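Quick illustration for those who missed Monday's session on complexes.
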Amino acid sequence: MAHPTLPSFLATRSLGTDEIGAKPTEALLRIYGWMQLSRTADNRILELFRQGLIKGTVTGGQGNEAVCVPLALLADKSVDVISFTHRDLGGHLVWSGHPCDHLNQYFANAGSPTKAREGNIHHGDPANRSLPMISHLGAMVSNVAGATDSQRRLGCPAVGLAFFGDGGSSTGDIHETLNLASLLSLPVLFVIQNNRYAYSTPLAEQFSPDTELWRRAAGYGIEGFALNATGDVLETARAFGEAIARVRATSRPMLIEAHTLRLRGHAAYDTCDYLAPGENDGFLSRDPLPKARARLVTLLGAARVDAADAEIAGFLEACVKTSLGVPRPEAAGMEKDVFAPDAAPLPWRAEPSKPDSLNLAQALNLGLRKILTERPESLVLGQDIGTYGGAFKVTDGLLREFGRPRVMNTPLAESACTGYAIGLALNGHRPIEEFQFADFATEATTQITLNAATMHFRSGAACPLVLRLPCGGGLTFGSFHSQELEAFFLSMPGLKGIYPSTPQDAFNALLAAYEDPNPVLIFEHKGLYRRGKAPVVWDPAYRSVWQPRHVHAGDHTTLVTYGEMTLVAEEAAKYFEGEYDVKFDVWDLRALAPLRLDEIRASLARTGRLIVLHEGRRTHGFGAELVARLTEENFGALKAPPLRIAAMDLPVPFAPELERAYRPTLESVIDRVAAWLG
Ligand SMILES: Cc1ncc(C[n+]2csc(CCOP(=O)(O)OP(=O)(O)O)c2C)c(N)n1
Ligand SMILES: [Mg+2]
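Prediction with thiamine diphosphate bound:
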């Protein structure tokens, strides 16, 4: 069904600061019109929720329209970047799409911008730089920082608009991002929508008395101010317009604390019992919408404003009717959409053409240098990766060769830096992020597993990221510098993972991961970085790292492993061939997600015996999945129970003796296999 035509006074979705002064009546009618449409829609959505036609819950933006509507009107929507919150339906309506598209999102129907995979206001429009929302408060502001920086790197004088509430302002992501934006001098306008409550928690239980959030700007070396967004909306818009212009001109971030309102409690189910008697009446008396209306009546007359309201109400009803007619969503295609589809190989130069003898760290360095040389959209970021060359010297020399901002040291802010990388990726850049140790990637768990990983499924946008994770133990680094996190991360849908065990595979893995349109984790065992050298060369079959590598041929037992344990498995296979005359068919998985097990299944069908070996812990370890997948089809052909060799279910212990007992070693693998062979 065709979408209803917008009322003529809503035909324009932009507003110049100059128009506010020169044509205040027109400006006010436009702002009021969008605010009124937003209010009418929010109220109607609440009714539809109560009728059971909208599921989940709804968090209304009633009272907050004077923040999100003027800002969305004033932004340059051809270049700027924005992330809306759950109070910003008005902003969504202005920014892009037809109101029916946004209603479809609430109805979670087949026309929903998230294909009904997300509910209520958890959507965006990535093609128009409205970044798709996730629930986790604070997490999206770093995405705005990244996408805005991406725009600037591409030569667009963009501004980012990052919204968050008083509640969200307590999250670490907000602090990390404000600091990062100031450090990198990113043109981002941070807007705190202070409505005095986080769910039921009042300001007094969120902050020490007399806290004024905007004053925090000074601590980041940026400008900040407070603004009353419940008064004259033209004044509010003028102040916002000047702030946007200043951020655009100076390319410095700014923090605004907008005092705003939440007129309908936290969400549809909120009974607001925690409010003091009369408190809600106070909110209602400060509502900016009736004030804007009253002023418009004085300028245009009551009849004209009544007519505008009636037109908006009629238009919205027509939209509701249209959206109610859209079919329910189909479950087909969900699994396919977890990942962005494979892209054609990039036109890599066939270099280096002569093999060089390199260790794994040097092979990665060569790969990074190749990518930075040949791919202008690439950049490398991480802690100490600049002059120092990274904790393991993998990025040695890159800063000298490619300079900032393509090789960037980052502050200790894994979450914001990963969110920043996501923003860059959403806008066409391809960041490669080094975590100093894989262990510290837990600081970015939300960004990796819930934001980047789910991006394509819920928004259709590709998020091409390479996350490099120096992992593994055996080096006496203890619990916080030795983790194997592949099972932890890869249990979340939407992430790919490669764990190379040779220098050539590491080089190939970087290229294959880089050109993949999805977030790819590369697990780099620290113990392999300098474990001997091998020839590394341009390999036209570099994408074969997505398949397992056949390491050692045998007919007795199929042995599946990856990472450093590949080397252990090779040694063990030689030992058993020599001492027991038993030949193992050894496979190095290389890609842990997606798993390609066809050749290994065929091997198991031949041998009927399975050993799975990995360094990570046994319980919920990667081997559990491998054994399950490999045996559920070949169960009848098994000649012996599968053997699973893994680390003990312990935090990684420190002392060498303890760590040797904790994780598989050649000796312990031989003992376990010998006992299993009987
Ligand atoms: C990190 C995180 N913790 C908890 C929640 C659950 N939650 C959703 S909204 C909300 C209150 C948010 O308050 P505020 O940031 O002030 O925004 P407001 O709802 O007042 O607009 C909470 C606690 C969440 N979404 N994210
Ligand atoms: Mg709040």
